[in-house]
Amino acid sequence: MASTIDIVLKPLLNPGGKYAGKVKVIIRLHVQPWHASSTWTHESALAVLRASPQNFWPYSLELFKNQENYFDIPTSTQTPTQVRESLAELAAKVLPARAAEEVKDMLKLKGSPNGGNAVTDDLKYNVKFSRQNSIHVSPTVLWDGLVAGEISSSWLKKEWEEFLAAKVQV
Mind telling me which PANTHER family this protein's record contains (predicted)? Predict the structure, then answer.
């Protein structure tokens, strides 16, 4: 769905697009706890969002392009620290040097033995949001705060244009 957001929705919603100023996309991360590395990939995205908000989407696309490196089997022989370091290196590909260092620092465990890292509270917020809205699968799309079950990750331009035409007055 990330590719569809980038290729189909952004042109429709950005300035000059048919729905500019009418529709706002808010991305909430949804950790899939049955994949151990899902927590770490989401932590990295949240750290990028804090360090360099304008680079969140480019980083997200880079992460999707490299997602197989963070699947269960490739990460099964790595420590959590090694995976977080790898994600910080991936972030450095799209971030300015200062922001890349901030991300690396935010992903380090700090505080008490079970205190998490600098984005643990952000991660908790996203998990709570998903639970509160009974979100179990990814992606799940909400429209006006309600789950829009008809939206599918397989949707392309035609489906999105039909959906938006039915939902938004221009």
Answer: ACR183CP (PTHR33875:SF2), OS09G0542200 PROTEIN (PTHR33875)
Residues 45, 5: Cα–Cα separation, whole Å: 17
Burial 9-32 (b: 16+ CB within 10 A, else e): beebbeeeeebeeebeeeeebbbe
pTM: 0.92
Alpha helices in 66-118 (DSSP H): 72-75, 80-92, 97-106
Tens digits of residue pLDDT in 136-164? 888 899 999 999 999 999 999 999 999 99
Distance, C-alpha 24 to centroid of its chain: 16
Write out the two tokens for 63. 């992460």
Contacts of 168 (CB under 8 A, 6+ apart): 19, 22, 23
> Is the separation of the CB atoms in 37 and 75 below 8 Å?
yes
Q: From CA 87, how far away is CA 104, in angstroms rounded?
A: 8
Query: In 10 A of CB 49, how many CB atoms?
Result: 20
Q: Mind listing the pLDDT tens digit for each residue in 32-60?
A: 989 999 999 999 999 999 999 999 999 99
**Cis-peptide into 139, omega within 30 deg:** yes
Length of the chain: 170
